[in-house]
Structure formats: C-alpha cells, structure tokens
Amino acid sequence: MNIILASTSTLFGGNYFEYLQHEIAELFTGIDEIIFIPFARPGGISHEDYTNTARTFFAKLNIKVKGLHEFEDKIGAINSAQGFFTGGGNTFLLVKTLHEENLMTLLKENVEKGKPYLGSSAGSNIGGLNMKTTNDMPIVYPSSFDTMGLVPFNINPHYLDANPDLKHNGETRETRIKEFLTQNDTKVIGLREGNWIRKVGSKITVEGNQLTRIFEKNKEPYEIEAGNEL
Amino acid sequence: MNIILASTSTLFGGNYFEYLQHEIAELFTGIDEIIFIPFARPGGISHEDYTNTARTFFAKLNIKVKGLHEFEDKIGAINSAQGFFTGGGNTFLLVKTLHEENLMTLLKENVEKGKPYLGSSAGSNIGGLNMKTTNDMPIVYPSSFDTMGLVPFNINPHYLDANPDLKHNGETRETRIKEFLTQNDTKVIGLREGNWIRKVGSKITVEGNQLTRIFEKNKEPYEIEAGNEL
C-alpha cells in the first residue's frame, strides 16, 4: 500500500495542502491523473466546486483531477483510476454515499492493490476500521459505520487538546475517545493538525511536526514522536 | 405535556442542577418517585453510579429515584412511572439502548400523556425529532437516529459560539448545524449552557439567562430572548 492519511488539508493561516505538498508529490510519483472523491461536501459545497479546489492544488503538481461524481459508471472509474484523493467535510455524508453506491469495498480493494491514496480529515477517517471516532455531526444516517480499514486502527483527525480556559461543560476530545474505548477495543490515533499517517507497503508511521496521542483500552493515553511506527 | 429539556446539568463552577433546582421542583410537583434513564453513561460510568448522582440531587426535593436498568420489566416500569429524567452522556449509546429495548416510542407515549419529563444534554436531544444535531461521538451504531419528537424541532445542547482565538481548522458548531441544514429541513435550537426549553401543554418557550440561537434552512441564524415561544 501507498497512502497518506492527513489530519487536515489546511493549517491555521496556511493555504490548501501547502504544508504537505512535497509528500503529496512523492505519493503520486509517476501519476498524471487522479480521482477526487468529493462526497463529504464541507459546508454543503457542491461536488463540482469542491473538485475544483482539489484541481487547483493538483495543477501545481501537473496532476489532472476528475471528480468521482462526474462518472455515470463510478465502479469502472475507480477500477481504471491511477490514484485517489478523498477530501474532508462531513464523514456521515461521505460514508453514507460510499455505501449507497457500493464503493467502499471497491475503493479499499483498489488501494490495497497499491494505487496511491490521499485522505484528509473525513477522507482519513474512512482509512480507519470504522468512523466511530469522527468529530462530525451525524447529519445523515449511513447504512453502516464500517470504513476501509487500510490501517488496523481508528483515526481521530483534528485532534485537539483540552482548553483549560474554556468555561463550558461539553466533553473534551479525550473524554469522547475514552467513551469510545468503553464500548470498543480498538486503538485510536489522535492526529493533531500538521500530522499525517504514512503507509508504504505494510509499514505504517506517523509524520509531522506534532506529537501524536494514542489511546488504547485499559491504558493511559500516551504520546509518540514523528517517524515512529504505529 | 410537561417537560424541561436542559442544555446541561451543570454550569461551569456550579453543582449538579443547582441552577435549575427551583424549576425541577416545580416540574415534579406532587410526585414522590421518578425513573432515571442512565443509558447515556457519561465517561462510561456504571448505570448504578450514574443513578446515584441523580438520586443525591433528587433527595433534596424529597423525590425517590429508581434507575431504569434496575427493572427486569422495563416496559412495565415506564408504564407505571410518575415521571422521568434522562441524564446526559453519549447520545448514540442512549438512543441505541432505547431502540434495542423498544422503549423510545413507549417513553414518548408516556410523556405525551402528561407525565413530567426532564432531559439534560443527550436526554434533551432525544426530546427533539432526531439525534442528528448531537455533539457526541458515534461510538456505537444505533438502529435509527429517530428520537421522541416531544417538540417539533431538533436541539443542539451545549451550544457554543466560535472562538476566534482558536488556531484550529476543525468545524465550528455553527458550521456543523449549517451542514445539517443542507441535508435536512428541520429547525435547530442552539441551546447555550444555562438555558432550557419548557413545554407546558402545547406551549413551548425557551428559558434561562442566555440568548438562544435558532437555525432554519435558507435563513440567517437569529437569536431570541428567554421567555419567547419556540
């Protein structure tokens, strides 16, 4: 496998994928066209507008982008594609659409054959075992929470440390992930913005300029440094 | 109907339901025992421990509390109850459990007969039409997102304004609710901590010391003051 699962597309104050441009170019070496999966539709943006955002970025790498929504035969499109990028937005909407169109398993099989895959945020969530550690609001009801399982754990993108100044009693991210672990025995990678997971062959590492927080059942959460295997 | 749907049980720096004690006493006037529904299990706390938290508070009002988990015949228990309180925690876990045990519709029918109902956080979410505007993490997969519909809209408890100082690209609460409205034509009440919804008969008002933010499809969000009808 050859994949990048990024916490976010855009760092605070930065431009779209500016911080990850070098690694994305390397991921898609030798490839001149990819399929963009726009179904997460951040803020309800149209599939076309969202694809154009990806298109503008990938033009810098001389890679053409086709939106998966453009194809009548989506199954054929995925089977013929050279590589994939799934953008962020709402994970429930993304997962519902992929299951409805019977594309989740197909996409997994294509990535497992070695076609490069880039995910960010919701697009990274679907690289995990299931979407039960998304931060998103359940605005639609998917037929299943299962995702591709390209990596043998779950991802929490945009991982955010508790803010001790906040006078608010909503749950912290850590509380939510610990609640998940009371119901599931699945490792969760708290991926801070600026970090990403890289899988080459069967080797999985965490990369970026932040520490990464790991949550496992019946263990205290712990932090690992970039470059370490997951 | 005679219900209170509160944003939270506990204000920052306050004690459990301290801010709402007077209104809760009024809601349960003439009642000496209620059933507590502990299924949301905040932080994975046991049903028994969670029920004890409620029990300690209601002892001040001379109201006995039985946990719904204590009954083998839960349907009989709900049908014989004088009133109900559903505590907060994880909405997915609460809704999954209520549907699995065929209690969602039964609870709704009992509340519609006039038995007083108190909800806080997840317990308020289930008073809305569905749970699609919860803030919680989808740690388990419920058989449906539909809830009781005691009020003809959805609730977003712990409503939180965007923090302009936060250097983070996760979605704001407002962005999430607007995403919900791209997929659903359902009014959403953004209930800030310290506020609650009161329904007496068919009259529904918002109460508390904060403004309440209302979201409707194809409209700019707007704020209403306490005492106004919803």
From TrEMBL, chains A, B:
Q: Which UniProt keywords apply?
A: Dipeptidase, Hydrolase, Protease, Serine protease
State the superkingdom.
Answer: Bacteria
The gene for this chain is pepE
Q: Which family does it belong to?
A: Belongs to the peptidase S51 family.
Give the matching NCBIfam families: PRK05282.1
- Its protein name is Dipeptidase PepE
Under Gene3D superfamilies, the record lists: 3.40.50.880
Q: Which organism is it from?
A: Kaistella gelatinilytica
Pfam families, per database record: Peptidase_S51
The EC number(s) given in the record are: 3.4.13.21
Xref: PANTHER family: ALPHA-ASPARTYL DIPEPTIDASE (PTHR20842:SF0), PROTEASE S51 ALPHA-ASPARTYL DIPEPTIDASE (PTHR20842)
GO MF terms listed in the record are: dipeptidase activity
